[in-house]
Design goal:
The chain has about 325 residues and is of the alpha/beta class. The chain has ten helices and 14 strands.
């Protein structure tokens, strides 16, 4: 048996591939390298360059490689870009996922894990977000992900097919062994940008909003180490292979850190003052975004190993220092 990982040359996908190879799984990576990097794929995995929505290719890989599970990471992820190019996001996220799901079902693959997002939730909340709260994404990115969740839900009812959709909060950090990390030069993630500032590659860090109703006035987010996130995927894979039913679960620690706290962590880890430029809030940014992860813990037995802001920052900075270094 083997696992097909779409987007396995990207940030989270490459960590997943290393984790699967580390535990002795046979892994096939399917990535079109539009944003992924071939060099980030673990040597023990088979790499195929191609599109996850190419049904003929997917069917051939499933048949030739004896694939019993798909973990789907491939897709476009920049929220502001999705507002500017909504049809491109529906094509690359929703349509590709639809084709991949159909090819998987027709090839008798029963186990499917989907990379979803906390942006599927509606409005703001003054506490941790649970999976039972209403959905109502405000961006095409979030809508494209929710549409895929709906397709998986309907498919699981209609066919011999099970899925787990994992809703990510703010993923950060890098492989503790230094094998892979966040490598996109256009990444907008706060911790990566802060690392770039600390290394002098970006002149300052933009702080959007200092008047939120939080402890220090800046936005609070639930930052989850990428290694803890892929551990949740590995547990979801075991859960499905053991007959577990369709499920949606949040991936986060259940507590958050503010922008100022992230800056403080970078300064502690690097010993460098981080220049920051404060400006007005961005439209649509909530004061806080924190996961209720009790379902993930109870259903899969997930226990995080890297729930420490300084550790997340330290691993991210170590990778950023290595990546793009001359």
């Amino acid at each position: 048996m083997a696992v097909l990982v779409t987007g396995g040359a990207g940030y989270i996908g490459s960590h997943m591939v290393f984790a699967l190879v580390d535990r002795g799984e046979k892994v096939v990576v399917l990535d079109n390298l539009s944003t992924g990097i071939r060099g980030l794929v673990a040597e023990g995995a088979e790499f195929v360059e191609g599109n996850a929505g190419d049904q003929a290719l997917v069917r051939r890989l499933i048949a030739d490689c004896d694939i019993d599970a798909v973990i789907h990471f491939a897709g476009s992820i920049v929220v502001p870009e999705s507002v500017e190019k909504p049809l491109a996001y529906y094509a690359n996220n929703t349509v590709v996922a639809r084709n991949l799901i159909e090819a998987s079902i027709e090839s008798r693959v029963r186990n499917f894990i989907f990379s979803s997002t906390a942006t599927v939730y509606a409005g703001e909340s003054d506490g941790p977000l649970s999976e039972d709260l209403p959905t109502g994404p405000i961006s095409p990115y979030g809508r494209s992900k929710l549409m895929t969740e709906w397709m998986l839900e309907d498919a699981s009812r209609a066919y011999d097919f099970r899925h787990v959709a994992l809703r990510y909060f703010n993923v950060a950090g890098a492989d503790p062994k230094g094998r892979t990390g966040q490598s996109s030069p256009r990444a907008t993630h706060l911790i990566k940008r802060a690392c770039q500032v600390a290394l002098g590659r970006v002149p300052h860090l933009d702080v959007f909003g200092t008047d939120y109703p939080t402890t220090d006035g800046t936005g609070v987010r639930d930052y989850i180490h990428v290694s803890d996130l892929v551990a949740a995927h590995a547990l979801a894979l075991d859960y499905l292979r053991n007959g577990g039913g369709a499920a949606v679960m949040n991936c986060g620690y259940g507590h958050g850190s503010s922008v100022r706290q992230v800056i403080g962590a970078l300064e502690r880890v690097t010993g460098r003052k981080l220049p920051a430029l404060e400006s007005a809030r961005r439209p649509g940014d909530p004061p806080w975004l924190i996961a209720d992860s009790r379902r993930l813990r109870a259903t899969l037995g997930w226990e995080p190993a890297y729930d420490d802001l300084d550790e997340i920052v330290r691993s991210a900075f170590a990778w950023e220092s290595k990546f793009n270094s001359s």
